[in-house]
Write a structure and sequence with these properties.
mainly alpha
């Protein structure tokens, strides 16, 4: 049976079934994104893989949701990687500060490090700024994933597209 031989009623039924499948899959992906708060990263990776796989074959409303899910994942991942990079730089800055404090310009001796007076140790502003930026981008990444997923979930529940097509 070729596609041209399908009756209009059967064709409409198949389109409706496809739209329902896309809608249910969209709900599942948003659920995976929200599950990422309990099990970091793995559910979101599974969700974005499904969205990438399905978005080209989806009906128009489903397509906007799959695009939104892919965009949400990459923005959240980018912010998360920025958070990790800033956290790494914070650790490097702190270790460098401790090493400079311990050596105080002299030749380093491990026994001197054990006898340091920690009351005179100060954390420099760059380390604090890097740490604050790392925490801020980490919180922003989590909030983005959560809010964008909830927004998409609400739009999908009301059969509305997301993005420019939904305006």
């Amino acid at each position: 049976m070729t596609h041209a031989a399908v009756s209009p009623a059967l064709s409409a039924s198949l389109v409706q079934r496809e739209a329902s499948f896309d809608r249910n899959l969209g709900f599942a992906i948003y659920g995976l994104f929200l599950l990422s708060f309990l099990v970091p990263l793995a559910p979101a990776i599974a969700g974005v893989a499904i969205a990438y796989n399905r978005r080209d074959d989806a009906e128009p409303v489903g397509h906007t949701h799959f695009d939104h899910q892919v965009r949400t994942f990459w923005i959240s991942l980018g912010l998360g990687l920025l958070c990790l990079s800033l956290g790494f730089l914070t650790v490097v800055s702190a270790v460098t500060g401790v090493f400079e404090f311990a050596t105080d310009g002299a030749q380093w001796d491990a026994w001197d490090l054990a006898a340091l007076d920690a009351d005179s140790f100060d954390i420099d502003g760059m380390t604090v700024a890097l740490g604050a930026a790392s925490v801020f981008t980490g919180v922003l990444s989590v909030l983005w994933l959560f809010v964008a997923s909830l927004f998409g979930l609400v739009r999908l529940a009301s059969d509305q597209p997301v993005g420019q097509a939904g305006a």
